[in-house]
UniProtKB/TrEMBL annotation:
UniProt protein name: AraC-type DNA-binding protein
GO MF annotation list: DNA-binding transcription factor activity; sequence-specific DNA binding
UniProt key word DNA-binding: yes
PROSITE patterns xrefs: HTH_ARAC_FAMILY_1, HTH_ARAC_FAMILY_2
Presence of the UniProt keyword Transcription regulation in the record: yes
Keyword line: DNA-binding, Transcription, Transcription regulation
Top-rank taxon, per record: Bacteria
TM regions (residue ranges): none
Domain spans labelled HTH araC/xylS-type: 320-416
Pfam families membership: HTH_18 (PF12833), PocR (PF10114)
Classification via InterPro entries: Homeodomain-like_sf, HTH_AraC, HTH_AraC-typ_CS, PocR_dom, Tscrpt_reg_AraC-type_HTH
Length: 416
């Protein structure tokens, strides 16, 4: 019966790929199935392994270790470098389709430094081999290829680049897994920060961060928005514990706030309502905190991107780059000429297409960005009005107050 992997990937194509890889890098390469059995092999088997494996306990095997390493690679979303029972190094890249693990590409064994007596002593300590077997292993260790650590890292990346495109759905799943792992790492960093600050369940919710998140969404800064979101999630998980329903409740509130922010930022109302409704539907089905956090992050990205969908396709990326540049430089004396130069356009032409695409002149848009930031500072800091004026790019307090009242209907003092 044909292995299931070959119903997804053509056997001959896979064979040609591992032969090319092995020929160029001179590392043994195998294709294993979801049980760890070898389907294809390229490169000579190591005599060291043949001698060693017969000493493994009955309840353990190389196949079992290879599968465990493969599953670790699935969680990481990339190739995984690991040491086997005998302290030999391998790299494994998982093959998945629609979330199902099909098998792996396994490179190795190899060493990252010259073998010595310590390698054999460690094996003896764990498995109690005879003197003759230890001597055989010592002799055979000299034939194992040595690859410097830096090169191992590059080979690991090469495995990913070469084999990730074999299964399109599999590559997408690995990217999602990478994103989840990265997000959880950032959330954990946030939790540790709150621990060090002695935050507890009686501490007030950081609404100032929520406002900052909304501002970043409006300004199109996805990277900063995701960072603030993960900080907020870290706070909720730390202060409330890993209570799914509480996190869901906060997620609902954030989704509503972000919906309004995206609409205010120029996104089409019907599109945002559809995005929000879809998130609400997904929310009912989620039973895992990690998935919930990742779905909320995805929604933030979609909200930000949706604010640029109304921009004509021809100028979409150009105006997006201009808006992001303004978002990062509004506090300085940024000019129309500066932004036009950043996107490599004549200032007069840039001014025209910016107005056509965003619905605001450059000066109006810049002032809106500055006023949004000044509102945040007025609400969440005790900085003086003149300091806030300077911090947000206005030349003097008088002009700041005039512009602030134009956009909000209140003076900075009244707003505060």
């Amino acid at each position: 019966m044909q292995p299931y992997l070959y119903t997804i990937v053509e056997k001959n194509q896979l064979k040609e790929m591992i032969e090319s890889f092995q020929t160029c890098l001179d590392i043994p390469l195998q294709v294993i199935d979801d049980q760890g059995s070898i389907l294809l092999s390229c490169g000579p088997a190591a005599n060291f392994c043949t001698t060693f494996t017969k000493h493994l306990p009955k309840n353990d095997s190389c196949e079992k270790m290879h599968i465990n390493a493969s599953k670790k690679a699935v969680d990481l979303g990339e190739s995984y470098i690991f040491s086997c029972h005998a302290n030999l190094n391998h790299i494994v890249f998982p093959l998945i389709n629609n979330g199902a693990f099909l098998g792996s590409i396994l490179a190795g064994p190899f060493l990252m430094e010259s073998p010595d007596s310590l390698l054999i002593q460690d094996i003896d300590r764990k498995y109690k081999l005879s003197t003759n077997d230890l001597l055989d292993l010592y002799d055979e260790s000299s034939s194992i290829k040595i690859i410097p650590p830096k090169k191992v890292t590059q080979i690991s990346r090469l495995l990913y680049f070469l084999f990730a495109n074999l299964i399109t759905d599999g590559k997408q799943q690995l990217i999602i897994n990478q994103g989840k792992l990265h997000q959880q790492s950032k959330i954990n960093e946030s939790i540790q920060m709150y621990k060090s600050q002695d935050v507890n369940s009686n501490s007030s919710y950081p609404y100032e961060k929520e406002k900052e998140l909304i501002y970043k969404v409006k300004s199109g800064d996805i990277s900063a928005a995701k960072g603030i979101l993960n900080d907020l999630l870290g706070y909720v998980l730390f202060s409330e514990g890993n209570k799914l329903e509480i996190v869901k409740s906060r997620a609902l509130e954030l989704s509503a706030l972000l919906s309004r922010a995206a609409i205010e930022g120029g996104a089409a109302t019907d599109s945002i309502l559809k995005i929000n409704n879809q998130f609400l539907k997904n929310l009912q089905q989620i039973t895992d905190l990690e998935i919930l956090c990742y779905k909320l992050q995805e929604t933030v990205e979609v909200f930000v991107e949706s604010m640029f969908n109304y921009i004509p396709t021809k100028n979409n990326e150009l105006i997006k780059r201009a808006i992001q540049y303004i978002s990062k430089n509004y506090a300085s004396n940024v000019t129309l000429e500066d932004v036009a130069s950043h996107v490599h356009l004549n200032p007069a032409y840039f001014s025209t297409i910016f107005k056509q695409s965003s619905g605001s002149s450059f000066k109006e848009y810049l002032n809106m960005v500055r006023i949004e930031e000044s509102k945040r500072l007025l609400s969440n800091t005790d900085y003086s009005i003149i300091d806030i004026a300077v911090a947000t790019g206005f030349e003097d307090q008088s002009y700041f107050s005039k512009v602030f009242k134009k956009y909000t209907g209140l003076t900075p003092k009244q707003y505060r």
